[in-house]
Fold this sequence. Notes:
Helix content: over 70%
Largest sheet: none
Radius of gyration: 18 Å
Structural class: mainly alpha
CATH class of the domain at 59-188: Mainly Alpha
Order of helices and strands: HHHHHHHHH
Number of strands: 0
CATH topology of the domain at 59-188: Tetracycline Repressor, domain 2
Strand content: under 5%
Amino acid sequence: MTRTRMTASERSAEVLAAATTAFAESGYAATKTDDIARRAGVSQPYVIRLFGTKQQLFLAVLDQVCGRIEELFRAGATQAAPDDSPKDRLDALGTHFGEHFLTESALPRVFLQGIAAAGEPAIGANIREHFGQLYNLAKELTGATPSEVRRFFATGMLLMDLTALGVTEGDAAAPPWATEILTNLGEEGI
Length: 190
């Protein structure tokens, strides 16, 4: 049996996927590059050769996660009709975000880990820049007011928190408080 050799970009993608899972589970500070390397099936020096430092790898993961949110916002915007109101456009973004991003549980966790690690100057600058870009993109794509976009983001962050906690809509085992929060949430801003 012959093995196909992976290209550098394929191997890099594998390391990013392994890092996403590891950072989602353990956070920035507690995750070791040795663990990421083991998950990716490569050596720890190879991870460092690809990304430089653990921080640079974490920033690459954050870039990928935030790029995914941007991609979903843009795709959600195409689902709105040209004559839809800004609220309807925000709803289209929120629906698409909820159906795709929130179902990939590692992604919301990594985003939240980026916020948690914002005390590190490079990480803080990165996550603030991404957050601002996503906020401005939502305004641009929908024509919504700052107040409407603020509510949209507040609801989205609440949903990310609940996803990170393992609480999802329709979960029969969800505690009553979670069910109450999730009931009719789409009618209130996302």
